[in-house]
Each structure stands twice: as structure tokens, then as C-alpha cells.
Q: What sequence folds into this?
């Protein structure tokens, strides 16, 4: 019997909260371990709404360093210090500048917290397109995608037990998504626009056209922008919603 893998959408929204959705954050639980895929500014609110205790999270994987994808980490650290009183380590995985950006954001929002000490270890690990990273039961692969000017923007492939979950992060169409999603169980694909391609983002018509090339059993749309939110009732492809729980 395969191990149970549970994915819960903590937040499925864009940077603007279009449609009233929270910023990007997905909770993956398997083999007694817990991982977050992205942690946007509103993620702590989403975790509370989903009944997920932040102290149980072992690691956070960040696709890229935009606030709606990593800006919740300072609040996660603050909660761990003052509310959960976390003692075991928390691992943060992402682009090369993740530690610098997290510490700068925490200092800007809550000056002196870092200097006072967090009372638990924070371990930083770097994503690498050339080799997989093993984090407990989770094997993490990534590929470079196209969003903004930074070269350190990644789509993610997470293997745990016998299941594979893929996540585009934010990107316009990239051929790298085809091998990334091969033989995967689930793809969380950002879909900011409907018909008019937006630089750095996927759009619905492109995903419809490319769907047959994406090797995932199930495709869920996330990160919907204003025009996509207005057209939800017309869509053929499935949308993931805040709080939705998926058993794999």
C-alpha cells in the first residue's frame, strides 16, 4: 500500500489578492513530515484557517524571491519565536539570496528580533538545477523558468513516497516544464491571465494548447489574476481554491 500524501492549498492567489485569495502557499504532508511550497505574505493566516500548526512544518521551499511567494517567512519565524516557542530547526530552501532577503525583511518589519535571537536553528539550503536535493522524505528537483530579470526563478518537482507533485511557481511558458512534469501525479500551474499573454506569467489559452505535452495526471490552476477570476465559470481546466485538500 502506498503512503498517504496530502496536499492542502493554504493560499492560491496572486500578488493582488485577486478574487479574495491568499498569497501562494501549499502544504504537503507525507511520511510524518511537512513541507511548504512557497510562503507568501498571508500564509500564516492561511495556515491558521486550515488548522495547520506551524510548529509541525519541517521545511519551506521557495520558488522565487517575490513577496507573494516568500514574504510570509518573517511572520512564520515571528510566530515560531513568540507563540509556538519552537525549539527544533526549520529548514528554508530556495534561491541563492534567500537568507539575505529573509533576514532583511524580518529586520525591516520587526527590528531587533534577529539580534535578540530566534531560540531555534534556521537552516538555509540552496536549490540547484543540476542535482536533486533530499529534505527528509522529500526529493526536490527544480528547473529554471522565466519570470522577471532574475535567473534564480524555479519550477519545482517534489517526489515523496511514490507520488510526484510539480509546481510552476511564476513563469511564462517554458519548454523546461515538459520534462519537469513527466509522469507526475499533480501539477499546480500558475495562470495569471486568460487570453492575453503577460510577460513572466502563464495564461489560460497557452495552458489549454500545451496541456497534452504536460505529463501530469491532474492539472490545477493557481495564481489567477483579475481577468481569470472574472471568468472562473467559463473554464474547462480545474482551479484549486484556498483551503482545498487533495489526497494523492
A:
Amino acid at each position: 500500500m502506498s503512503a498517504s500524501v496530502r496536499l492542502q492549498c493554504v493560499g492560491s492567489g496572486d500578488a493582488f489578492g485577486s478574487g479574495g485569495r491568499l498569497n501562494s502557499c501549499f502544504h504537503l504532508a507525507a511520511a510524518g513530515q511537512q513541507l511548504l511550497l512557497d510562503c507568501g505574505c498571508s500564509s500564516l493566516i492561511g495556515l491558521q484557517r486550515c488548522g495547520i500548526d506551524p510548529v509541525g512544518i519541517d521545511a519551506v521551499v521557495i520558488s522565487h524571491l517575490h513577496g507573494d511567494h516568500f514574504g510570509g517567512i518573517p511572520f512564520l519565524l515571528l510566530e515560531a519565536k513568540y507563540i509556538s516557542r519552537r525549539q527544533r530547526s526549520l529548514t528554508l530552501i530556495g534561491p541563492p539570496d534567500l537568507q539575505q532577503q529573509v533576514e532583511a525583511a524580518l529586520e525591516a518589519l520587526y527590528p531587533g528580533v534577529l539580534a535578540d535571537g530566534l531560540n531555534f536553528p534556521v537552516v538555509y539550503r540552496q536549490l540547484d538545477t543540476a542535482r536533486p536535493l533530499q529534505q527528509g522524505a522529500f526529493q526536490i528537483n527544480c528547473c529554471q523558468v522565466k519570470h522577471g530579470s532574475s535567473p534564480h526563478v524555479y519550477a519545482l518537482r517534489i517526489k515523496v513516497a511514490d507520488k510526484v507533485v510539480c509546481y510552476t511557481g511564476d513563469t511564462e511558458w517554458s519548454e523546461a516544464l515538459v520534462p519537469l512534469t513527466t509522469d507526475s501525479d499533480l501539477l499546480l500551474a500558475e495562470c495569471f491571465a486568460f487570453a492575453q499573454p503577460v510577460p513572466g506569467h502563464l495564461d489560460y489559452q497557452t495552458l489549454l494548447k500545451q496541456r497534452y505535452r504536460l505529463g501530469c495526471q491532474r492539472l490545477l490552476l493557481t495564481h489567477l489574476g483579475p481577468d481569470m477570476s472574472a471568468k472562473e465559470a467559463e473554464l474547462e481546466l480545474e482551479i484549486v481554491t484556498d483551503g482545498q485538500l487533495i489526497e494523492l
Observations:
- The chain has a mean pLDDT of 96.
- The CA atoms of residues 47 and 53 lie 7 Å apart.
- The first helix runs from residue 43 to 50.
